[in-house]
Amino acid sequence: MSAPVKLAVYDFDGTLIRGDSIVAYLRFAMKRGCLSPFSFLKAAFAGLMNSLGLWTPGKAKAWALRFWQKLPKDKREALDRDFAETLLGRIRPGGLCQMVQDQAAGRTVLLLSASTDNYMLPLSERLGADGLICTRISDLPEGNCRGYAKVERLKEWLTERGWEADLSASAAYADSLSDEPILALVGHPVLVDPKPEVLKQLGSRFPSVHWPDPEE
User: Fold this and answer.
1) What is the value of pTM for the model shown?
2) Last residue of a domain, one of 39, 69, 86
3) Cα–Cα distance for residue pair 198/177, rounded to 1 Å
């Protein structure tokens, strides 16, 4: 049996980049003529319903991305690839440096995100990550990779490869309260630029770091 793998698990939105990538994706799609202004407003309505607690994040995400399902395959692929390129310029240098350090330390670098596979897949390939676990559009609205679902998806990912993880030697980087389950799973958890309410609730359990944005 092979030795257990050491992991370095990275959240994406709010951790490797500031803010929520799906909002930027919708704006990018509208500028490219793939999403009408009216459909953008409907997506904004879905976000509002989620923020009010009336819709689940998965339902809001599925509603916002309905336009994507209707695009021709070649147009979808070009949109997603080009958007992934724009995200590369937003990634925090501190996160990139940490990924290099983790790989040098023998850790398997894994992106673990609630963002969707249509643009996360080309992005992870450009970043040189060793693996990607994220929300699959085909699984929405139920299969949103968020909260404890990240732990379940990670376990599935390891089982599919016949791997065992050395969790005590593994690291995780995240920014939100919903990431508490994945942070609690590893021996080296790190809060990245947590908001005050997150720091108040989780700061006594997990150390925190500041990764400046590229323009800082």
Assistant:
1) 0.95
2) 86
3) 6
Q: What are phi and psi of 115, to 5 degrees?
A: -70, 165
Mean pLDDT, rounded, of the chain = 95
Q: Which two tokens stand for residue 49?
A: 């319903």
Which DSSP string do the residues of 40-103 spell out, in sequence order? HHHHHHHHHHHHTTSS-HHHHHHHHTHHHHHS-HHHHHHHHHHHHHHHHTTS-HHHHHHHHHHH
* pLDDT at res. 1: 55
Shared domain check, 62 and 167:
no
- Give the C-alpha separation, 153 to 133, whole Å: 7
pLDDT tens-place string over residues 19-33:
999 999 999 999 999
Q: Are 133 and 111 in contact (CB under 8 A)?
A: yes
At 200, list the tokens.
């108040």
Q: Write out pLDDT tens, residues 98-146.
A: 999 999 999 999 999 999 999 999 999 999 999 999 999 999 999 999 9
Same domain? For 150 and 74 the reply is no
Same domain, residue pair 79 and 97: no
- 163 DSSP 8-state letter: -
Please, where are the H alpha helices in 105-205?
117-127, 148-161, 180-185, 196-202
111/187 Cα distance (integer angstroms): 18
Does 114 lie in the same domain as 58?
A: no
Answer yes or no: do 146 and 184 share one domain: yes
